[in-house]
Amino acid sequence: MVVGICQMDIFIHGNDSLKRKRQILRQVIERTKNKFNVSIAEVGDNDLWQRSKVGFSVVGNDTRFVNSCLDTIKSFVENLTIIEVLNSEWEIIHY
Question: Is the dihedral of CA 80, 58, 61, 88 positive or negative?
Fold first, then answer.
């Protein structure tokens, strides 16, 4: 079993409230879930209104497949115009 995990630091331009931040993150999370069927959630910076940490994971039986999925999902999120990805880190774990 191969598990891929990724954490992204996200910046939301022009945001002025936690309520709006949560609306934007909900859009990002739902779009990503619907397109890729992955586990994804806000995992940090919950009380900052312009920043967030989002994490997602992929499970498979082949390292190349998991690596490709992580790369595709990362590119998808980076290309969303409502947010900016400041940094991303990923790790692939073999069990």
Answer: positive
